[in-house]
């Protein structure tokens, strides 16, 4: 290890000796040690099943941010270009796990897992198209949900989840009929923060129906037509496609006015506006909020404590979940305990995490 710099040493420490990449399995021993030793995770010590869910969440978030090509294999170069080593050092020194918002925050994990649990009504750990249509109070169009299932990047689709046919072509073993928890993490991180590079590529792939790496007017018009119909049904003032597109082009300033490429969204001035076009195409609630935005509140948002849109969303949603949990606890204290015990034997009640199922860890 002596001849190598700290990034290379970190890479070699994690990977298996016979390969030149890191897989998700390589992270598990280190996350397990973190769960055993970190004071901020001590309350999970007696809940092995929930520790596993936390570990899966952390590792999937790492691959989301570091493995931008979603191959399921992290290379030495990707380690060098990422903040992974510095975040590992931070979590080793910081006693409050929730201050490590990159990858390790328990509150962020709680938000991700609760959202998944809310949609997974039959508790099979699979999100169907019908389940995903309910996300964000039915904010997503059926057209984008179909594309998420058919085309969106999956976290580990290019690694141990795939095989080759006789011609050397990749055959995915990952089912496209549902989203696993790891798939849902990729979706939710992309949906709630459309300013990062992976999110841009995620949604670009979904909207690029013909797969030519260009978004043309026909593709965007087809998505927006669904939005127009939904806005009309909801009683909102509709914005013609031409007006919406002109506004978005003025903000994005693409290299070619005839179509958009992914690099247009990754320009420095687009970091906070690129998501507006995607919302206009398939998220009716967020698009309406964008159209009715308050400039003063937008200025406050830019000046607040949060580094990313995801950090801001996770904080707000965690507080919502915590308030709901407190309300349930108050109701439980007022209830007839004998009757409540009988109901728990017959039904699927919320436990102290705010999730159904007796195997979950406490809040």
Write structural notes for this entry:
- By secondary structure, this protein is mostly helical.
- It contains 19 helices and 4 strands.
- The protein has helices at residues 6-14, 24-37, 48-66, 76-81, 84-93, 106-119, 129-132, 135-138, 142-151, 181-192, 197-207, 217-233, 241-252, 262-265, 274-282, 284-291, 295-302, 309-334, 337-346, and strands at residues 162-164, 170-172, 215-216, 259-260.
- The chain has a two-stranded antiparallel sheet. Strands 3-4 form a two-stranded antiparallel ribbon.
- Strand 1 and strand 2 (170-172) form a beta hairpin.
- The two termini are 42 Å apart.
Secondary-structure blueprint:
Layout: H1 6-14, H2 24-37, H3 48-66, H4 76-81, H5 84-93, H6 106-119, H7 129-132, H8 135-138, H9 142-151, E1 162-164, E2 170-172, H10 181-192, H11 197-207, E3 215-216, H12 217-233, H13 241-252, E4 259-260, H14 262-265, H15 274-282, H16 284-291, H17 295-302, H18 309-334, H19 337-346
Antiparallel strand pairs: 1-2, 3-4
Structural class, from secondary structure content?
Answer: mainly alpha
Compute the CA-based radius of gyration: 22 Å
- Shape annotation: globular
Oligomer: single chain
Summarize the structure.
The protein is mainly α and 363 residues long. It is built from 19 helices and 4 strands.
Key terms for this structure?
363 residues, mainly alpha, two-stranded antiparallel sheet, two-stranded antiparallel ribbon, 19 helices, globular
């Amino acid at each position: 290890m002596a001849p190598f710099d700290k990034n290379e040493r970190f890479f070699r420490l994690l990977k298996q000796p016979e390969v030149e990449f890191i897989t998700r399995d390589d992270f598990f021993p280190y996350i397990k040690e973190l769960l055993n030793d970190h004071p901020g995770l001590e309350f999970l010590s007696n809940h092995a099943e929930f520790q596993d869910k936390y570990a899966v969440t952390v590792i999937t978030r790492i691959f989301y941010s570091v493995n931008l090509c979603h191959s399921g294999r992290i290379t030495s170069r990707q380690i060098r270009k990422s903040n992974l080593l510095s975040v590992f050092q931070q979590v080793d020194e910081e006693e409050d796990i929730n201050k490590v918002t990159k990858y390790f925050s328990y509150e962020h994990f709680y938000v991700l897992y609760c959202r998944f649990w809310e949609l997974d009504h039959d508790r099979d750990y699979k999100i169907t198209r019908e389940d995903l249509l309910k996300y964000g109070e039915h904010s997503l169009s059926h057209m984008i949900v179909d594309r998420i299932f058919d085309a969106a990047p999956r976290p580990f689709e290019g690694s141990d989840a795939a095989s080759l046919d006789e011609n050397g072509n990749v055959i995915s073993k990952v089912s496209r009929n549902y989203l696993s928890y790891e798939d849902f993490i990729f979706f939710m991180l992309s949906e709630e923060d459309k300013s990062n590079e992976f999110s841009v590529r995620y949604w670009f792939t979904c909207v690029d129906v013909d797969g030519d790496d260009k978004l043309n007017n026909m593709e965007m018009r087809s998505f927006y037509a669904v939005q127009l119909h939904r806005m009309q049904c909801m009683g909102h003032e509709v914005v013609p496609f031409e007006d919406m597109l002109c506004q978005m082009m003025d903000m994005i300033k693409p290299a070619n006015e005839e179509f958009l490429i992914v690099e247009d969204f990754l320009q420095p001035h687009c970091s906070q506006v690129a998501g507006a076009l995607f919302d206009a195409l398939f998220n009716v609630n967020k698009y309406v909020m964008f159209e009715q935005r308050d400039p003063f509140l937008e200025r406050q948002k830019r000046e607040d404590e949060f580094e990313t849109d995801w950090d801001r969303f996770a904080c707000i949603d965690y507080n919502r979940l915590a308030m709901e949990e407190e309300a349930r606890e108050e109701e439980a204290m007022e209830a007839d305990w004998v009757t409540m015990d009988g109901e728990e034997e017959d039904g699927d009640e919320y436990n102290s995490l705010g999730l159904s199922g007796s195997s979950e860890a406490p809040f």
